[in-house]
Amino acid sequence: MDDLAPDGKLPTAFHGYSREAVDSLLGKIEDSYRAVIAERDELRGNLADTNRRLDGVTAELDDRKHKERAIADAVIEAERLKADGEKQAGAIKGEAAGEAAETRRRANQEAQELKAAAVRDAEEIRRTAELEAEAMKRDAEAARDRAATESDELLRGAQSRADRLIGEMRQSLEQRQHQAEELLDDVGVRLGSLVRDLFDQIGSASHEQDAAVEPEQGPG
Predict the structure, then answer these.
(1) Model-level pTM greater than 0.70?
(2) Domains of the chain, each with CATH number or no CATH
(3) Residue 102 vs residue 41, higher pLDDT
(4) Half-sphere exposure of 33 (CA within 13 A, CB side)
(5) Which of 30, 75, 129, 156 lies at a 20 to 30 A Cα distance from 90?
């Protein structure tokens, strides 16, 4: 980052790290985290759209079920017509037995064909609807799982980067503090040495002065 020194560490000020550089670095970390949150929200919106599409498929399946019930009603109506035909054939049996038998045969055949066709159509519609619904459901669930996985990975990545930066900053601060303590210890040692040298010089000067005074006071 631009706020780091060429050696990869934060620049220092008079009493520690440069506050401006630290604030800038924390701001960039916050911006990166906000970008990850925005991307997660977008993925959630895509997931909501997929759920709406799944609801549409469910509604279409319900509509097809209504059509199946209508076909079943048609089969029942055909059965009723068959029964009516049989009653009419019985009423006119004495007058036109042959014609009634043929009419009944045709009615039975047509009813059976209509019933078989209706059952086949209903089964085909149901099977097709179930296959389409299952396929769309799998696609929706896969999209939802991918979105959730990508969102979790992005959050973990951002957290890992933030933890790494914070760890590096803490380590750098500890190193600077250790260097400062060593510098203070070295200054203390040098200061003690200077004080001892000063006292030694003062002592030497005092002895020389006393030695110079004694001859002048010799013969009294």
Answers:
(1) no
(2) 12-200 (1.10.287)
(3) 41
(4) 13
(5) 75
